[in-house]
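In response to reviewer comment 3 from the previous cycle, which asked for concrete evidence that the modeling workflow produces usable outputs, we include below a single protein chain processed end to end. The sequence was submitted unchanged, and the resulting structure tokens are shown without manual editing.
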Amino acid sequence: MKELMGVINLDHELDQLNELTYFRCGAAVPFAGRYRLIDFVMSNMMHAGILDIALFVRRKYRSLLDHLGEGKPWDLDRKRGGLFVLPPDWNDPTDVSTGELQHIHNNLDFFERGSARYVVYSGSQHLSNVDFCDAYAYHLEQGADVTLIYTKTQQIRPEHQACTRLDVDENGRVTDIHLEREHPNLYMEMFIMEKNMFLHLVRQCIAHGESHFFRDAIQKNRRKLNIAGYEYKGYHAVINSLESYYRNSLDLLKPDTYHSLFREQPVHTKIKYEVPAKYLNTADVSNSLVANGCQIGGTVDGSILFRGVQVKEGARIHNSIIMQKCIIEEDVVLENVILDKDVVISRGRKLQGDIRKPFVVAKDTAI
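The workflow returned the following structure tokens.
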């Protein structure tokens, strides 16, 4: 849709997944056997026909750049527009902006050159399949200055504690923005706003020494702005801790949960051509996601195996997440474990975590 341009802001997202974010930002963490967390919001914007997407990054983004490339899987490798990965520019001696507003101020040309009239702004920690076209139509129907996208949760989980909450009246207007932990309306860190108003509020915030757009431009001005709330009713997961990553990953082993995330529209990711998974005569696999390129000779139950994992004969894996190209030698036992990429577990080792707190092994480790 030519009326919309996308902004994915990773600046305020802390690297809270412990060992999984030692060498990468949270948006680049692998998920669901073949994806990265960034893929979900990128795919949502692609399905909305958004042709210009800016990605604001500040730290540990080498892995993310390698994954995104020129944006071809999301149809963003174009001569005009496409994907723009924008680290902050430190070379302007007159720049007085701070925080995430520094990204916007130092990359104003992205907004000024784009022909789109509206900005779709998002982070990467809320996994969903939001229809931005429907949210945009709702925004126009409401005649709002800004439309905040939220969802109603049926169960408050620990990862929801950090989420902002919205009070929304019967007319769809946001009447309050707060942090009441037991409130079910979770703001998904996504909004739609007219581009000129967005840039006006950015300049206003910078002039007053502010640093955070949502807090300083929207939340503090909630009495002055016409703020609409668009309710999203599909799959939703917040990945902002190791525990939430582990639990939401294994939840995908439930068919209904898996289909609610992937059935409505495909999620695009970096393409890798590998042979299908190979199951040896000694393999016993049940209730698991197994990516292509794997070779399995042991027992795998209730687990997720990424591309190229080798599970040797006699090994047993239960309730675990094994990332790309890990090697599990003979007679290894893994239970409630997360192995990052390229980990080697030597013969006869036993690693066991707790279902509430998995044992994690960092990338490129040999045990």
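The CA atoms of residues 3 and 174 lie 24 Å apart. We consider this sufficient to address the reviewer's concern, and the full set will be provided in the supplementary archive.
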